[in-house]
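User: Some background: our group keeps a shared notebook of sequences we're curious about, and every so often someone picks one and asks for a predicted structure to add to the entry. Today it's my turn. The entry only has the sequence so far, pasted here. Could you supply the structure so I can complete it?
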Amino acid sequence: MYEFDEYHLLLGGLGAAIVLSYWLPRFLSGREPAASALLIVMGVALLSLIPGVRDFLDPTRFPRVWEVLAELCVIIGLFGTGLRIDRLADRKQWQPTIRLLAIAMPLTIAAVALFGWAAAGMTLAGGILLGAILAPTDPVLAGDVQVGPPLEGGEHPVRYTLTKEAGLNDGLAFPFVHLGILVATAGGLSLELGGEWILRDVLYRVVIGVLMGIAVGWVLGKLLFDWPRENALSKTGSGVIALAGVLIAYGATELAEGYGFIAAFVSGLTLRRSESEHQFHRRLHDFSESLEHALTSILLVALGAVLPILWPYLGWPQVLIAVALIFVIRPLTGWLSLIGSALRRRERLIVAFYGVRGIGSIYYLAYAGHHVELVDEEQLWATIAFTILLSTIVHGLTAGLAVERVTGEHQTGPTLPPRGAD
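Assistant: Of course. Here's the predicted structure to add to the notebook entry:
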């Protein structure tokens, strides 16, 4: 007897949604697709028609599934982002990124928390948690504004700044996620709790993340290119080492109670310094990029599939938070943080505006939902889902052209073929 198994329907629907998201733009306009928003829309259109799928994917019931998938996607993306950066450059060129991380991100968290309290009546813990969840820019969905693959060059200050920001702020938002969880668990914020948070969740875990990333990246470089010199791993041509490397960096760092997100990026950045002109870096990058795109596509389609579950919890306060973040909070805090930097006025505008939201926010909310009983969890998921949808539409459809105009370079996003390809 033939029967329609929901699981197999889910697999078929996922595949169809992904294919259509990349094929339809070519069929309708002949242009390369900005697929992120379409993947979400296709998830709504296709998977929501399959019985039982929405309950199976409900993030409020199964946050662990979303946490693990988003976690893998982010760490692979962070490692690949580290590999993208050909040169470390000098302190002057790092200054805009440092300003975004040290000024814009905390201001964004505070502004979102305040907005959540004023517009949605959130508690202190809920506001901090929401701000931390929405603060980081996305290393996976921001390919159109980042530097090109290894050895390609084209590291314009705008792309360079946005790439490094996306590589580091996922990990640096984690202390604020922990702060929100601590405040929710303790029922308030005290001096003792604040001191514990600074020493453990800020200083110790960040430092361990950086040190472990450097150590793993250095050892990987030696194993790939130097040990043994006559038959090094780089001669195998297998890019699967990229996956192995990021798993080692992330897993070892988390075991040491450090931030694995920071270690994943730093290990890729450190590995890139080993035999920096070797073509194997491009193979490692391409392999990790393929993995991250596959996982991202699945997550975005799944997010679209659960949107019908979340719509009833999406009120005007949640919409206002998302709109304020995309159009006011991030652009304003980004602009203020970059005043006095080496970037020109137009470059500051682009960097300030194109803070793409995405998979990192899914991970943080799923992580929080798995570790603490959240108040109004459905409203939080509705806010995150709408913010990501809005960001993929606004940023996804305009980022490539806007950055291309300000840099004078061709788009280097993942949806384009290598330069010089037919």
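Suggested note for the entry: The chain is about 70% helix and 0% strand. Residues 411-422 have pLDDT under 50 and may be disordered.
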